[in-house]
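Technical annex B. To support the medicinal chemistry partners, we prepared a structural model of the target in complex with 1-O-phosphono-beta-D-fructopyranose, based solely on the information shown next.
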Amino acid sequence: YEQPKVIKATMEGRITATRVLEQALGTDAENLLENVRHVQIIACGTSYHAGMVARYWIEDLAGVPCSVEVASEFRYRKHVIQPDTLFLCISQSGETADTLAALRQAKKAGFRAALAICNVPGSSLVRESDLVIMTQAGPEIGVASTKAFTTQLTALLIFTLALARHNGLNAEREADIVKAIHLLPGQVSDVLALDGEIEEMSKAFMDKNHSLFLGRGSQYPVAMEGALKLKEISYIHAEAYPAGELKHGPLALVDSEMPVVTVAPNNDLVEKLKSNLEEVRARGGELFVFADKAADVKPEEGLHVMQIPSVHEITAPIVYTVPLQLLSYHVAVLKGTDVDQPRNLAKSVTV
Ligand code: F1P
C-alpha cells in the first residue's frame, strides 16, 4: 500500500521533461553512459525479474543489447565481458552474496562502469559500484519483495531513458514516457482500490496445489514475479511461461485443478492470447485474466476478468505487478500462512 508514495519518492527530483537522471547520477554518469554498447544485468529473485523487465526497455528505447542473468549462475559460469559493457546489479538489500560475488568477478574481467540499483545506502553493493540509483522504498518488513520491485522498475526506467538519450531516443517519445512515469503513483492507487475484487478472486486458489502464469513481452517477467509471490507466501506451486510456450509442454498439465493467470494489458496482446485462452478452457482449466478495461475480453464460464485501468505500454509492467501481489497476499491470508515471514526464507541471502 505504500507503493504510490515510494514510487513517487524514487522518481522525484530525478525527472524533468527533457533531462532525466541529472540529479540521480550527475555529470560523471553522463560520461560513463557514453559509448555503452552492451548492458549486463545481474540480480537474484525478485530483483532478477526487475532486470528481465528492464531488458525489454533497454533494447526497445536505447537500442542497446542487454543480457540478464541470475547472479547465482553468472558467478559459476565462464563469461566474456567487453570493455564497453555497463554492468548493472540490482539488489534491494545490497548484501546478496551471489550478486556481490558476480560483481567482484566481473570487475576482474573489466567493463565500462558498474551501476547499482539499490535500496540500502551504505550497503556493500553501493560502496563497490561506480554509479548508484537509490530506490526510495524504505525498509521492507516482509521477506517477499513488493515495493522494492516496483521502485526498482521505476529506477530502471529512469536509467533507461538516460541511456536512450545517448543513443538517439526521439525527444517526443521520451517526453511521452516521462509523462507516463508521472502518472504511475495515481495508477497504482487505482489498482490498489481493486483489492476487494482481487480478494474475491483469490478464493478460487485456496484449495489448489499448482498454477500457471502466462505473459507476453515485458509482461512475461511480470508473470514470473506473480508466480514467485504466490510460491513464496502461499506455498502454491506456480510456474510462469511466456504465453507462446504454453503449447510446447505446460499445456499437458492443464486441467480443472490448474488455474491459469494471464497478464494482457492491451487489445493487441489480448488478441494474441485468445488462442491460449481457448487452449486452456478446452481442457477445463480456469482462467484469470488481468486485462485493460478497454480491451475486448469479457467474463464468461471459466474466464474471470480483472479490469485494469488503461496505462502506457512502457509503464504497464509496473502497474500490472500490483494486482498479482494482492492476489498472492489474499491467497496467503486465506490459507493462514505467515505473509511477512514465509517458511525457509530469509530477507537477505548473505551466504
Ligand atoms: C534478492 C532476494 C529477494 C527475495 C528474498 C531473497 O534480494 O531474492 O528478491 O525477496 O528476500 O533475496 P536482494 O538482492 O534484492 O536484496
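Notes passed to the chemistry partners:
The chain has a mean pLDDT of 89.
The chain has two domains: 3-185, 194-335.
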